[in-house]
Amino acid sequence: MPLLIILFSILIIIGLLLILMTKMYSNKFEAHIKTPGDYSIPFESVRYQTENNKRLYGWWIPAPKDEEVSASTIILVHGWNRNVGRMMPYIKELHPAGYNLLVFDSRNHGSSDPDEFSSMPKFAEDIIASINFLEKKPESNIEDLSVIGLSMGGAASIYAASKDTRIKKVITVGAFAHPAKVMKREIQKKHIPYFPVIWMFFKYVQYKIGSSFDLIAPINNIGKVKADLLLIHGEMDDVVPVENAQSMEIAGNQSTIRLWTIPGKGHSNCHEVPEYWNQVIAFLDKNERKKKATGIPIASKLSDLKFTLQ
């Protein structure tokens, strides 16, 4: 009898820990508070479908009128449990720099439809659904399409670009290299043992998403990406350590990938360094246009960024 009580107690503890981990990765559904209109930026609220007929909510923000330039388009992708509002710093800098912008809430986030669960592959599917939406929008130009993704959105941008060659440029900020490693690190901060609890949780998650972590891991797909890649990472990131970006740089196509590590910055504040927007726009432009988002002169080509890109 005492043995049965011990076993039963262990099962209860494991069950409670599994519930705790599931709650850690549940979605909050917090909608945005401000819109681009609050900053005098014209925009259109849009809705469009995913491959499983869920509807995404987003903002279409056309570039300022410029008869001499056919504006390129950028898709902006938030991270886990964020929404379109998280991308406001990017909207405020990239819109006056002359880009069309599409910002969206991923499924189970913000004002988009609920779905059975969220995952990095579903974020990637939402990116591809956004490209399909843009293809039908006459005023959008996706010949030189870029995607900028933060954290989970960055990892999903790499995965989407490995599947869809319509994406020509990708910028990630704080993206992880392998979902299992970053999740294990976060869960173990709560002193939960890997075996059997985290191990069981990982098996459950992989069953839910219908794929192994190894198959979807950005580090295992980044070599398939044909787009130009700029990996940005704060050296003080304690959510996704900088080693994630360093390992992906090695795994990527060396002729098209660049890594910029930013001293003193963490997971969510890389955009606060003075040269940030200058470097981002220089990468996006690749000497095609000369525009300014700040008072800093823009590097004329990617090779000019060697003083900061490693």
How would you briefly describe this protein structure?
With 310 residues, this protein is α/β, with parallel strands linked by helices.
Keyword list:
10 helices, eight-stranded mixed β-sheet, globular, Rossmann fold, 310 residues, single chain
Name the CATH homologous superfamily.
Alpha/Beta hydrolase fold, catalytic domain
CATH architecture: 3-Layer(aba) Sandwich
The count of β-strands is 8
Strand content: 5-15%
Strand order of the largest sheet: 1-2-4-3-5-6-7-8
Radius of gyration: 20 Å
Task: Tell me the series of helices and strands, N- to C-terminal.
Answer: HEEEHEHEHEHHHHEHEH
Total tally of structural domains:
1
Unreliably modeled segments:
287-310
Quaternary structure: single chain
Largest sheet: 8 strands, mixed
Mean pLDDT: 89
Give the number of helices: 10
Going by helix content, strand content and strand pairing, the class is alpha/beta
- How far apart are the termini? 62 Å
**CATH topology descriptor:** Rossmann fold
Overall description:
The protein has one domain (38-178, 217-307): Rossmann fold (3-Layer(aba) Sandwich). The protein is an alpha/beta fold. Strands 1-2-4-3-5-6-7-8 form an eight-stranded mixed beta sheet, sandwiched between helices. 36% of the residues lie in helices and 15% in strands. It has helices at residues 2-24, 88-94, 120-135, 152-163, 179-188, 194-209, 213-216, 218-221, 243-251, 276-285, and strands at 44-49, 55-61, 73-77, 100-104, 146-150, 169-173, 228-234, 257-262. Strand 7, helix 9 and strand 8 (257-262) form a beta-alpha-beta unit. The chain has ten helices and eight strands.
